[in-house]
Write a structure and sequence with these properties.
- The complex is a heterodimer.
- Chain A contains 16 helices and 5 strands.
- The longest helix of chain A is centred in the C-terminal third of the chain and has 36 residues.
- The model of chain A has no long low-confidence stretch (mean pLDDT 85).
- Chain A folds into 2 domains: 234 residues, no CATH class; 92 residues, abc type-2 transporter like fold (3-Layer(aba) Sandwich).
- Chain A is elongated.
- Chain B is of the alpha/beta class.
- Chain B has 2 domains: 231 residues, no CATH class; 110 residues, D-Maltodextrin-Binding Protein, domain 2, CATH 3.40.190.
- Chain B has 15 helices and 6 strands.
- Chain B has a 4-stranded mixed sheet with strand order 2-1-3-4, sandwiched between helices.
- In chain B, helix 2 packs parallel to helix 10.
- Classes of the chains: A alpha/beta, B alpha/beta.
- At the A-B interface, helix 2, helix 4, strand 4, helix 6 and strand 5 of A face helix 2, helix 4, strand 4, helix 6 and strand 5 of B.
Chain lengths: 356, 368
């Protein structure tokens, strides 16, 4: 196999590809889906509560506030700036602590609590920031409440927000459309236009043509996968492991794509096959949305072995050592599919030879 | 007797070039498909987005007397809604299943009110699912302690501000701008900038295929060619943006003002398209040059989605005034007076972009 020729064919596909609506669809779909899913289920547009504090003395509240979970704390330079920021919705709430505030609270002098909320802040954020502020003041007063609070997590302790549970669905769309559908449709178009015959009478072999199509699928699917992870803020803690599994997933899908492309006689046949058969590749995503379903079922699909590592690495902050087993199986599927791709390549060569 | 050939007017020549441009546009199925898919998609996405902002934390409560106390304490507050449950089991089920929108459950012991009055220590369970964020858990923890203080007769150790002093700016509690509303300017602007790519590709094709040379050897002048490009580009962008605005019902409040804003926007993106098209040699380079303008121009539209004031550098982007004008008109009911400074800013940027775009394109055409 000549790598220069393979690269030339691949380069031609990458250059001409953007003219195809499927190419555009492959790139846009994960972005559009993410947008809808985060808009409907997620918190992309509901940022964490933002509290500004101006400490004119040396209050211990500032240090307490910086320890608060899920609240973004900033310290504007002075009270006037803080008021402006709150009014402009750059902060949800602001707190000005005058000099000697802590002593005044401890001495029971009832100092003025200069706590403001922005008119455009969400009512729920106002509640969260108000009670957090009052709690911090109570701690300075040093009079403990006569109650013990026990936070009880009910249901599945590992349950994740719906937006996170939908990540596998976005990922399978991203890698399938770009990795499988683009090479498949490209091959079909080449067959229909007869350009595949022209290519095969040149020094290029059928293996080089299919390798180029796989290369395009891998590049595009990895790219859309990275975009999808990035816009979903799901890069976790081990980005390198995520890229490795994305490339493996893209390779697996690209192999499926070229097999579909060599087999299907036209785009209608491809669409029909995908409509009927894609369920076998897509069904594991259901088990992420409803984790109470039996978890052995998704393991029957090859896509599970790249979706699970992507999910663990991206959402659950796992590392390479936690997911290497599934990644190895995923790579195993890629190896197993390779001889099938070769068989399909020979079949394509025979068909082209007969037709010419 | 000599036969006279009717001389074409300048307007007639420009109209003929525009007609040719529209024919070229409809022949390039790639751009036609993008335009149609874009319009349908944007309208569909818009109507799928939520039209309300859920800014209420719904709390389920069980325990004699405490629910009523909480309901009275939170009356008039948009931030908390209280649902009462007869038993802890019923409350647990409601929290687990999210029934009635209950996000958190507070299970008070049966003798809680009496215990607090006597300052007898007791335990309250806060029931949450794993997906409840940390700040909400902490807030509920603090809320329970505050209820205990209140029932024990402990007043706050500080003096609170009055309601007038407490809220800064117009209080939009219960009347927040929804995600759907926030998306209006983004939708309209995306349609405009997609058309920028279309026009840039048409101009690039004219230059590369040298059809422009053929045009200027007829009675048409270079200025006719440039005028036709500006009109065709503006019309393409304007018509599609107006169709989308109608589809997402954004013309209603102040239609003449919205049409003016969109027309100015279409003129502005056309100016940028002239620059991108002059430099583009093929499809890929047209996309590249278009993206070079498209990405920065999109920033103000995305900035609207996030709370707070845009940074100074965002305000300096040519599209900022346009987005601000659309947001003001569609979300806050602004009229001509409020929109005028933004429109002036867009107009100024448009003039600058045309001076640059037309001079580059003119040089390109004359050099052919």
């Amino acid at each position: 196999m000549n790598l220069t020729r393979t690269w030339r064919i691949m380069h031609k596909d990458l250059r001409m590809g953007p003219r195809s609506p499927i190419f555009l669809y492959a790139i846009l779909l994960p972005v559009v889906l993410t947008f809808i899913i985060n808009g409907v289920f997620g918190s992309l547009f509901e940022p964490t509560p933002r509290l500004g504090i101006v400490d004119e003395g040396a209050s211990s509240i500032v240090a307490q506030a910086q320890q608060l979970e899920g609240i973004h704390v900033t310290e504007p330079s002075d009270a006037a700036t803080l008021r402006k920021m709150v009014e402009a919705n750059d902060l949800d709430a602001g707190l000005v602590l005058q000099s000697g505030f802590d002593e005044a609270v401890r001495n029971g002098e009832m100092p003025l609590l200069q706590f403001f909320v922005g008119g455009e802040s969400l009512a729920s954020n106002r509640i969260i920031l108000s009670v957090a502020t009052i709690d911090m003041v109570r701690q300075i007063a040093g009079d403990p409440a006569p109650v013990e609070v026990d936070i009880v997590t009910i249901g599945d302790p590992d349950q994740l927000p719906m937006a996170s549970r939908l990540l596998p669905m976005l990922m399978i769309y991203a890698v399938f459309i770009a990795g499988a559908f683009v090479p498949a449709s490209s091959l079909i178009e080449e067959k229909q236009r007869g350009t595949i015959s022209a290519l095969l009478v040149s020094p290029a072999t059928v293996y080089e043509v299919l390798a180029a199509k796989i290369g395009v699928g891998v590049i595009l699917a990895t790219l859309t996968g990275v975009i999808t992870l990035a816009i979903n803020d799901a890069f976790g803690g081990d980005a390198l492991a995520l890229i490795i599994i994305l490339v493996t997933a893209s390779l697996m899908m690209a192999e499926v794509g070229v097999m579909l492309g060599t087999w299907a006689k036209d785009l209608n046949a491809l669409f029909a096959t995908v409509k009927a058969g894609a369920i076998l590749l897509f069904y594991p995503v259901i088990f992420y949305i409803w984790p109470s379903l039996p978890q052995w079922i998704p393991k029957l699909s090859p896509t599970y072995y790249f979706l699970q590592p992507i999910f663990d690495l991206g959402v659950r902050d796992a590392t390479l050592s936690d997911v290497w087993g599934e990644m190895a199986i995923s790579l195993g599927f890629v190896v197993v599919l390779a001889p099938l791709v070769l068989i399909m390549a020979r079949r394509l060569q025979r068909k082209v030879a007969i037709s010419t | 007797m000599t036969a006279t050939t009717p001389r074409a007017s300048r307007a007639g020549i420009v109209a003929a070039i525009i007609r040719k441009d529209f024919t070229a546009f409809t022949r390039d199925w790639f751009f036609v498909v993008i335009s149609i898919i874009g319009l349908v998609f944007f309208a569909l996405i818009f109507w799928l987005l939520p039209n309300t902002v859920d800014e209420t934390i719904t709390i389920g409560v069980t325990g004699p007397g405490i629910g009523e106390f909480l309901e009275q304490s939170t009356t008039g507050s948009d931030g908390i809604a209280v649902k009462l449950y007869s038993s802890e089991d019923a409350l647990t089920t409601a929290v687990e299943k999210g029934d009635d929108g209950v996000a958190v459950g507070l299970a008070f012991p049966p003798d809680f009110v009496e215990s607090m009055a006597a300052r007898q220590p007791t335990t309250v369970s806060v029931l949450v699912t794993a997906e409840v964020p940390g700040e909400l858990r902490d807030a509920m923890d603090s809320l329970v302690r505050e209820i205990a203080y209140a029932l024990a007769g402990d007043t706050l150790p500080v003096t609170e501000l009055s309601q007038n002093e407490y809220v800064l700016g117009t209080d939009r509690s219960g009347d927040q701008v929804s995600l759907r509303e926030k998306m209006r300017p983004l939708m309209a602007f995306v349609v405009l900038v997609i058309e920028m790519m279309t026009l840039a590709a048409l101009i690039a094709a004219e230059i590369q295929q040298r059809t422009v040379t053929a045009i200027v050897t007829t009675p048409a002048r270079v200025s006719d060619f440039l005028t036709a490009k500006v009109i065709a580009g503006t019309l393409l962008a304007f018509v599609q943006a107006v169709i989308l605005l109608i589809a997402i019902r954004s013309l209603g409040a102040n239609a003449p003002l919205m049409v003016t804003i969109v027309l100015l926007g279409a003129l502005m993106v056309t100016a940028f398209a002239l620059i991108a098209g002059s430099y583009g040699r093929d499809f890929i380079s047209v996309v590249f040059w278009s993206m070079l303008f498209l990405i920065p121009l999109m920033i103000p539209a995305f900035a609207v989605l996030f709370p707070g004031t845009a940074s100074s550098w965002v305000k300096a982007i040519p599209s900022y005034g346009l987005i601000n004008a659309i947001v003001g008109t569609t979300s806050y009911g602004d009229g001509w007076a409020e929109a005028l400074p933004n429109l002036a800013m867009v107009a100024a940027w448009t003039v600058v972009a045309y001076v640059i775009g037309l001079s580059i394109l003119k040089r390109k055409v004359e050099a052919l």
